[in-house]
Amino acid sequence: MSYTVTSNNFEAKKKGETISDKELLELGLNAEALVAGDHLKSNAPTKPATEKEAE
Amino acid sequence: MARTVLTDASVVINGINLSEFITSVALSTSEDVVDTTGMSSSGARTRISGLADNSVTFEFNQDFATSGPEITINAVGSSLVGTVTTCVIKPTSAAVGAANPSYTFSALCAEWQPLSGAVGELATISATWPISGAITKAIA
Q1: A-chain residue closest to B88, CA distance
Q2: Least Cα separation, residue B21 to chain A (angstroms)
Protein backbone atom coordinates (compact mmCIF):
# COMPACT_ATOMS: atom_id res chain seq x y z
CA MET A 1 0.00 0.00 0.00
CA SER A 2 1.19 3.54 -0.62
CA TYR A 3 0.18 6.95 0.71
CA THR A 4 0.30 10.48 -0.67
CA VAL A 5 1.77 13.12 1.62
CA THR A 6 -0.82 15.83 2.30
CA SER A 7 1.04 17.74 5.03
CA ASN A 8 3.77 20.36 4.79
CA ASN A 9 5.13 19.19 8.14
CA PHE A 10 5.90 15.59 7.16
CA GLU A 11 9.68 15.25 7.46
CA ALA A 12 10.41 12.20 5.34
CA LYS A 13 8.81 13.39 2.09
CA LYS A 14 7.42 16.55 0.56
CA LYS A 15 3.74 17.27 0.11
CA GLY A 16 2.40 15.46 -2.95
CA GLU A 17 5.03 12.73 -2.91
CA THR A 18 4.16 9.12 -2.15
CA ILE A 19 5.47 6.87 0.59
CA SER A 20 5.03 3.13 0.98
CA ASP A 21 4.05 1.02 3.96
CA LYS A 22 7.55 -0.44 3.91
CA GLU A 23 9.18 3.00 4.13
CA LEU A 24 6.87 4.02 6.99
CA LEU A 25 7.72 0.79 8.81
CA GLU A 26 11.45 1.38 8.37
CA LEU A 27 11.05 4.89 9.79
CA GLY A 28 9.04 3.54 12.72
CA LEU A 29 6.01 5.67 11.87
CA ASN A 30 2.38 4.94 12.66
CA ALA A 31 0.55 5.09 9.31
CA GLU A 32 -2.94 4.94 10.81
CA ALA A 33 -2.30 7.97 13.01
CA LEU A 34 -0.78 9.87 10.08
CA VAL A 35 -3.85 9.15 7.95
CA ALA A 36 -6.23 10.00 10.80
CA GLY A 37 -4.28 13.23 11.35
CA ASP A 38 -4.62 14.24 7.69
CA HIS A 39 -0.88 14.07 7.10
CA LEU A 40 -1.14 11.16 4.65
CA LYS A 41 -3.86 10.02 2.29
CA SER A 42 -4.20 6.31 1.58
CA ASN A 43 -3.92 5.31 -2.07
CA ALA A 44 -5.72 2.02 -1.50
CA PRO A 45 -8.20 1.32 -4.28
CA THR A 46 -11.76 1.83 -3.15
CA LYS A 47 -14.20 -1.00 -3.64
CA PRO A 48 -16.87 -0.28 -6.22
CA ALA A 49 -20.38 -0.33 -4.88
CA THR A 50 -21.95 -3.69 -5.44
CA GLU A 51 -25.11 -3.73 -7.46
CA LYS A 52 -28.13 -5.55 -6.19
CA GLU A 53 -28.64 -8.76 -8.03
CA ALA A 54 -31.64 -8.73 -10.32
CA GLU A 55 -34.47 -10.73 -8.89
CA MET B 1 33.03 27.80 23.15
CA ALA B 2 29.66 29.12 22.05
CA ARG B 3 26.80 28.66 24.46
CA THR B 4 23.45 27.50 23.19
CA VAL B 5 20.28 29.52 23.47
CA LEU B 6 17.35 27.49 22.23
CA THR B 7 15.33 29.42 19.67
CA ASP B 8 14.97 26.90 16.87
CA ALA B 9 14.91 23.43 18.43
CA SER B 10 13.53 20.77 16.13
CA VAL B 11 10.93 18.32 17.43
CA VAL B 12 9.54 15.62 15.14
CA ILE B 13 6.91 13.24 16.49
CA ASN B 14 5.73 10.31 14.36
CA GLY B 15 7.38 11.96 11.36
CA ILE B 16 5.58 15.29 11.80
CA ASN B 17 7.54 18.44 12.57
CA LEU B 18 5.77 20.07 15.53
CA SER B 19 8.57 22.53 16.36
CA GLU B 20 6.42 25.62 15.81
CA PHE B 21 4.09 24.47 18.61
CA ILE B 22 6.82 23.49 21.08
CA THR B 23 7.78 25.94 23.82
CA SER B 24 9.97 23.61 25.86
CA VAL B 25 11.66 20.27 25.47
CA ALA B 26 13.68 18.25 27.98
CA LEU B 27 15.34 14.92 27.30
CA SER B 28 16.40 13.15 30.49
CA THR B 29 18.51 10.11 31.23
CA SER B 30 19.16 8.57 34.61
CA GLU B 31 20.87 5.35 35.59
CA ASP B 32 19.83 3.06 38.39
CA VAL B 33 22.50 2.95 41.06
CA VAL B 34 23.28 -0.61 42.13
CA ASP B 35 25.08 -1.04 45.42
CA THR B 36 28.00 -3.46 45.27
CA THR B 37 29.34 -2.83 48.76
CA GLY B 38 31.01 -5.88 50.29
CA MET B 39 32.66 -6.56 53.60
CA SER B 40 36.03 -5.43 52.34
CA SER B 41 34.93 -2.05 51.05
CA SER B 42 37.08 0.03 53.38
CA GLY B 43 34.15 1.75 55.05
CA ALA B 44 32.70 3.33 51.92
CA ARG B 45 29.93 2.08 49.66
CA THR B 46 30.80 0.98 46.14
CA ARG B 47 28.36 1.22 43.28
CA ILE B 48 27.86 0.44 39.63
CA SER B 49 25.20 1.72 37.27
CA GLY B 50 22.24 -0.46 36.41
CA LEU B 51 19.47 0.13 33.93
CA ALA B 52 19.05 3.46 32.19
CA ASP B 53 15.70 5.17 32.49
CA ASN B 54 14.97 7.78 29.83
CA SER B 55 12.11 10.22 29.44
CA VAL B 56 11.16 13.28 27.46
CA THR B 57 9.00 16.25 28.47
CA PHE B 58 7.36 18.45 25.85
CA GLU B 59 5.40 21.63 26.35
CA PHE B 60 3.16 22.59 23.47
CA ASN B 61 0.97 25.50 22.53
CA GLN B 62 -2.27 23.73 21.69
CA ASP B 63 -3.71 24.05 18.18
CA PHE B 64 -6.68 22.04 17.01
CA ALA B 65 -6.20 22.95 13.35
CA THR B 66 -4.62 20.83 10.63
CA SER B 67 -1.02 19.79 11.37
CA GLY B 68 -1.32 20.94 15.00
CA PRO B 69 -0.46 18.90 18.09
CA GLU B 70 -4.01 17.68 18.76
CA ILE B 71 -4.70 16.12 15.37
CA THR B 72 -1.16 14.78 15.09
CA ILE B 73 -1.10 13.09 18.48
CA ASN B 74 -4.74 12.58 19.37
CA ALA B 75 -6.60 12.21 16.06
CA VAL B 76 -10.08 10.75 16.01
CA GLY B 77 -9.86 7.14 14.89
CA SER B 78 -6.17 6.60 15.59
CA SER B 79 -4.59 8.34 18.54
CA LEU B 80 -0.93 8.00 19.44
CA VAL B 81 -1.86 8.23 23.12
CA GLY B 82 -1.10 4.88 24.71
CA THR B 83 1.22 3.84 21.91
CA VAL B 84 4.97 3.96 21.36
CA THR B 85 5.98 6.50 18.73
CA THR B 86 9.23 7.58 17.14
CA CYS B 87 10.56 11.02 18.09
CA VAL B 88 13.58 12.95 16.83
CA ILE B 89 14.84 16.12 18.48
CA LYS B 90 17.71 18.46 17.60
CA PRO B 91 19.02 21.72 19.14
CA THR B 92 18.32 23.55 15.86
CA SER B 93 16.52 22.84 12.62
CA ALA B 94 19.84 22.79 10.71
CA ALA B 95 21.37 19.60 9.35
CA VAL B 96 22.69 17.05 11.83
CA GLY B 97 26.35 17.58 12.73
CA ALA B 98 28.77 17.61 15.64
CA ALA B 99 27.35 20.97 16.77
CA ASN B 100 23.76 19.93 16.11
CA PRO B 101 23.30 16.30 17.16
CA SER B 102 20.04 14.46 16.69
CA TYR B 103 18.45 12.28 19.37
CA THR B 104 16.14 9.54 18.15
CA PHE B 105 14.02 7.44 20.48
CA SER B 106 10.73 5.62 20.91
CA ALA B 107 8.50 7.30 23.47
CA LEU B 108 5.37 5.89 25.08
CA CYS B 109 2.71 8.60 24.78
CA ALA B 110 1.54 7.92 28.29
CA GLU B 111 -0.27 11.21 28.90
CA TRP B 112 -2.00 13.96 26.96
CA GLN B 113 -4.00 17.02 27.90
CA PRO B 114 -6.29 17.98 25.04
CA LEU B 115 -7.44 21.09 26.88
CA SER B 116 -5.56 22.85 29.65
CA GLY B 117 -5.50 26.50 30.62
CA ALA B 118 -7.25 29.22 32.59
CA VAL B 119 -9.44 32.06 31.40
CA GLY B 120 -7.49 34.52 29.30
CA GLU B 121 -4.52 32.19 29.02
CA LEU B 122 -3.08 30.27 26.13
CA ALA B 123 -4.14 26.63 25.91
CA THR B 124 -1.02 24.59 26.49
CA ILE B 125 -0.05 20.97 26.95
CA SER B 126 2.65 19.53 29.18
CA ALA B 127 3.42 15.88 28.56
CA THR B 128 6.13 13.67 30.02
CA TRP B 129 6.60 10.44 28.13
CA PRO B 130 8.79 7.54 29.27
CA ILE B 131 11.16 6.32 26.59
CA SER B 132 11.11 2.69 25.55
CA GLY B 133 14.69 1.56 24.94
CA ALA B 134 17.80 3.57 24.26
CA ILE B 135 18.28 7.07 22.88
CA THR B 136 20.32 7.11 19.68
CA LYS B 137 22.54 10.14 19.26
CA ALA B 138 23.81 10.94 15.76
CA ILE B 139 26.25 13.62 14.63
CA ALA B 140 26.24 12.88 10.90
Answers
A1: A11
A2: 12
Question: Integer distance in angstroms from the first to the last C-alpha of chain B?
Answer: 20
Does the CB of A1 have a partner CB in chain B at under 8 Å?
Answer: no
CB spacing of A38 vs B66 below 8 angstroms: yes
CA A31 to chain centre: 7
Where are the domains positioned within chain A? Answer: 2-42
Q: A3-47, pLDDT tens digit by residue?
A: 999 999 999 999 999 999 999 999 999 999 999 999 999 998 776
Question: Full-prediction pTM beyond 0.95?
Answer: no
**Structure ipTM:** 0.87
Domains of chain B: 10-138 (2.40.30)
Are A37 and B72 contacting, i.e. CB atoms less than 8 angstroms apart?
A: yes
Cβ B15–A36 below 8 Å, yes or no?
Answer: no
Point out which residues pair with B12 in neighbouring strands.
B17, B88
β-pair partners for B125: B60
Which residue in chain B has the smallest CA separation from A35?
B78
Closest to B57 (Cα-Cα) out of B32, B91, B23, B82: B23
**B81 and B74 in contact (C-beta within 8 Å)?**
yes
Chain B interface test: which of A14, A25, A35, A39 (most B C-beta within 10 Å): A39
Q: Please, are residues B72 and B12 in contact by the beta-carbon 8 Å criterion?
A: no
